[in-house]
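[job 4417] fold queue: 2 targets
>>> target A
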Amino acid sequence: MKIKLISITKPVDVDLKNYSPEEYTTYIARVSNPSNQTNLDTAPKLLKYCLDQGHYSVYDMVDFTIEITTSLAIAAQILRHRSANFQQFSQRYAEAEGFEVVELRLQGVKNKQGSAELYQNKENIKAVELHIIRSFELYNTLIKDGVSRETARFVLPTCTTTRLYVKNSIRNWLAYLNQRLHNHTQKEHRLIAEKVRDIMIVEFPVICGTFDNFKTAFDEKFM
């Protein structure tokens, strides 16, 4: 799993070119108060007020794009967040690039769709590793024998890696984190959400500070 910040909204107006994305959010928020629109001294207070009062629309004006490398299984979960815009690696156009190591865990008891502690049967763990390797060997054999990429890919496991770009507004990234930082989220996906959170803490420190760096998100919703 890899996460990388690719782009972020920056103002190009000559009067705003030195504004950070977070400061730009404040400028937009003060559209009804033009005489005070460039006041950055009270920007942190305004951002906190908007969040506390549920005035989330101001956070639709800035977005950022991240590159995610993950498994097909987790990518399918990410793609369910329909507020985002996506561009994903095509296995019809290019050959599969590899796979992520599978961490087998026991079935969860309280969380019926989740997992618990690590699975310890070494024989079956080894069998999974061999299955993945043989799947890729078969895939490569089919490709070399002229089978189309779009049909050969059906023999690959869902741990096969894919790469996608995800663009979302601050508002919708917060909604994403509200769900995916929670301990009921699959571990592999939660680790991605934690990386997104880390990016937001750097780029939007005032907004993230309102949530105490999302420390409560693991056990409860923060929005």
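>>> target B
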Amino acid sequence: ERVKDTPFFMAEERPRNPYSLPASDETIYEPFILSGHKRIAVLSDIHIPYHSMSALTAAIDFCKKDKPDALLLNGDVLDMFQLSKFSRDPRKRHFAEELKAMEQLLAVLQKTLKCQMYFKYGNHSERYDHFLFAKAKELIGVEEFELEAIIKKHCEGIVIIKDKRIIRANGLNIIHGHEYTQGMFNPVNVARGLFLRGKTSALQGHSHQTSEHTESDMNEKITTTWRAGCLCELHPEYAPLNKWNHGFCMVDLDGKTGFDV
């Protein structure tokens, strides 16, 4: 639905198919507009059940004190280890156990923060559909097996954001980071890479490290990009040496375009 007074409203209806062209499977890519909130907590890359107990506790403590009216789980809440295409250690937790741990975490967040919760898909969330495509394609389209239905079953009232959609909160664009499918150009730091790709104020997760980059243009317009840290273990078996660090973001919104990260 295209709503009036938004950038996606089309004032005059144009002919849809005056030449009787063949039917198209084109998809319409529009952002998810995050509105009606003044303070949003953004937690990225929890990777249940490989979450950091101390980092996640610190984040919840901070949120409890600052009282956000929305919580955005910005991708890779679940690790989905056993659904990965890579070689899997059979001793690691299975998907059912991950879901149980996720249910426990979401219940804690709902009870503690008492705010609207949003669940954005990250690249690890996409492992679920890829697994079904390869192993159980007959279940594709069955509502009970859709990841969205599974998550909502474990957390009433949560809003699901999928399909690599950009989230827009006033003048700030929020992505998980895997939306740039060709990889993030990463000179100096990830935030600068995000600036070079997006050319607008933006926040992302995905690469498990914090950074910030600011530039001004000829007209002195300032653009800043941020990279949130992760809330998972810092030295997993597959990447014990890295530049990761723990972190999360709080975003204050003011009016129609203002924001503070």
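[job 4417] complete. Note on B: The chain has a mean pLDDT of 90.
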